[in-house]
Amino acid sequence: MLHSTKLNLATATMDVPRVVAPDPATVRDGKAELRKLAREMLLSYVDLLDCAAARPSQLRGSDPMRLWYDPEVPRPPPVETVRAAVQNLLHVTNVLRPHQARLGLAERLRRGVAEKQAAFDALDAAEREAEEAASTAAAWAARAAGTQ
Predict the structure, then answer these.
(1) Do 86 and 41 form a contact (C-beta atoms < 8 A)?
(2) How far is CA 148 from each of CA 134, 141, 143, rounded to the nearest angstrom?
(3) What are the residue ranges of helices labelled H in 14-148?
(4) What span, in angstroms and rounded, lies between the C-alpha atoms of 100 and 129?
(5) CA–CA separation, 117 and 107 (whole Å)
(6) Number of structural domains, the chain?
(7) 10-residue mean pLDDT series, the chain (148 residues)
(8) Could you tell me which of 5, 9, 39, 43 has the C-alpha nearest to residue 23?
(9) Residue 136 domain-assigned?
(10) Do residues 116 and 57 touch, judged by C-beta distance below 8 A?
(11) Residue 3: its pLDDT value, please?
(12) Residue 74 forms beta bridges with which residues?
């Protein structure tokens, strides 16, 4: 194997709150992480649309300590929640990009090797057919020379 499957999906360097809690099993699986983040982004977007329709005053963001969902837990306004979800999603996508590029390159190389192997097999088959045709022609020529 040419690459490590362990991914570092930390968002602490971006000053962005992490939307999905890190799970040791999920950190290794970028696809599951992307699904969680996409689901969270869609839910945040639905909440944003609900807020825009029902409570447009909450979208102004004038009170940064506004409580969202649970009065006991301070949450960012819905716009910030969507922003954080999108940034987390972009971060994970960027982390996975080199991994995906390596996998794509490996697949293209495997396909190229398989195509070349098929071409060599076709050449070997053509060579065997040519040798059989030459030996058959030589046998016919020997018979023809012997009968004359």
Answers:
(1) yes
(2) 21, 11, 9
(3) 24-27, 30-54, 78-147
(4) 43
(5) 15
(6) 1
(7) 44 55 57 86 86 71 46 60 84 83 93 96 96 92 80
(8) 9
(9) yes
(10) no
(11) 37
(12) 67
Q: Tell me the backbone φ, ψ of residue 74, rounded to 5 degrees.
A: -70, 130
Does some domain include residue 111?
A: yes
DSSP 93-115: HHHHHHHHHHHHHHHHHHHHHHH
Structure tokens given for 117: 């192997």
Please enumerate, as own/partner, the contacts of 108-114 that have beta carbons within 8 Å and a separation of 24 or more. none
| Calpha distance 1→68 (Å, rounded) | 46
Cα-to-chain-centroid distance, residue 52? 33
The pair of three-digit structure tokens given for residue 21, joined into one six-digit string: 């809690």
The answer to the question of residue 4 being in a domain is: no
CB 87 within 8 A of CB 16: yes
Q: Which domain holds residue 85?
A: 12-147
Q: Which two tokens stand for residue 8?
A: 């570092």
What residues does 67 pair with on adjacent strands? Answer: 74
- CA quadruple 43, 49, 55, 58: dihedral sign: positive
Q: Which amino acid is at 16?
A: V
| Residue 2 resides in a domain | no
Please choose, from the candidates 144, 139, 11, the residue with its C-alpha nearest in 3D space to the C-alpha of residue 87: 11
Task: For the chain, report the end-to-end CA distance as a whole number of angstroms.
Answer: 67
